[in-house]
Amino acid sequence: MRQHREALKRLSCALAAADLGHIECDVSLAECSWYEIGGLADIMVHPHSAQALQRTLAIIKDHGVPMFVMGDGSNVIFDDAGFRGVVVRLGQPISAMAIDGTRVKAEAGLWVPRFALELARRGLSGVEHIAGIPGTLGGLIVMNGGSQRKGIGTHVTSVTCLDNAGEIQHFNQQDCAFGYRRSALQKSDCVVLSAEFELDLAPPSQIRREMIDILATRRKKFPKHYPNCGSVFLSDPMMYDVIGPPGKAVEEVGLRGLSSGAAQISSIHGNFIVNRGGASARDVLWLIYKMRQTVGEKTGYWMDCEVRFVSQQGAVMPAHQAADVLFGAHLSHALPAELQALL
């Protein structure tokens, strides 16, 4: 513990001397997460540019301190014990956007609803389905996020990343291997800096009408009165064809409204878990375990999580893996032993 504190002090001094952005200590992760769950992060850095981000990551690596890079916090569950390391938060300073005809380049910290709105204004079509999705663009690309069973990766032509050595890497669409809510970027240990897109032309009024319809559907279907991180489980195409989406499966096995502490499976949509006030990460993970186990036993389909869990020691994993370790380590699909030690 003493060594860790000394390493943090040296790192904090190095970051401050480099003047790369705003630095905070002992930051509440609950205030940075859409779930409003999580303990304190030792240090949080807000880089003021893409170049500052590159230098920030290099300095952190040199000091050997655990690190987690986040955007808007819309798809993460932080450990109740916090994060013993540095959280690097991307946002408005790294959110530039440039349009050249139907080609668009945008930085990772750009807020997704703003991205969608700017494209609509310019009559650029193809990603209307992202309207209303919270979070920043970098995370959306890594997850190949979207709605209506579409993914943003369809229109991505290239992605620029920083690898774990702080070097810039370029990936074309084939390199990214986009699939339904997945990409090769999820396993690359890279941090997305920016992406380029090729879009289609359409009347702005037509694009706006489609986006308004999408937003209206989201308002009707999804809970909005309590903190949540959106869809918990990914929709498996094979399961979808036989049973339907995860929310339907959860509801049909009788789990709608089930609670653990202050966390509850939404009574509005079975693929949402809401924080009714003071929920812990453990509460949410228990519900995830219960949902996955019950649906798996009754249908034969084991749902995987879209939302990620970030442990105190720095492990980042789909939340169902953390739930399996905490509540069902006997399962054959539980997390490998080398990662269990990080929970």
Class of the largest domain, according to the CATH hierarchy? Alpha Beta
The proportion of strand residues reads 15-25%
Write out the strand line-up for the largest beta sheet, numbering strands in chain order: 6-7-11-9-10
Average of pLDDT: 91
Report Rg.
Answer: 20 Å
The count of domains is: 3
CATH architecture of the largest domain: 2-Layer Sandwich
CATH topology type of the largest domain: Uridine Diphospho-n-acetylenolpyruvylglucosamine Reductase, domain 3
Q: Tell me the structural class.
A: alpha+beta
- From the N-terminal CA to the C-terminal CA, the straight-line distance is 17 Å
Helicity, as a percent range: 25-40%
Largest sheet: 5 strands, antiparallel
How many E strands?
Answer: 17
Task: Enumerate the spans where pLDDT stays under 50 for 5 or more consecutive residues.
Answer: none
Features:
globular; 3 domains; 34% helix; five-stranded antiparallel β-sheet; Uridine Diphospho-n-acetylenolpyruvylglucosamine Reductase, domain 3; alpha+beta; Uridine Diphospho-n-acetylenolpyruvylglucosamine Reductase, domain 1; single chain; 343 residues; Uridine Diphospho-n-acetylenolpyruvylglucosamine Reductase, domain 2
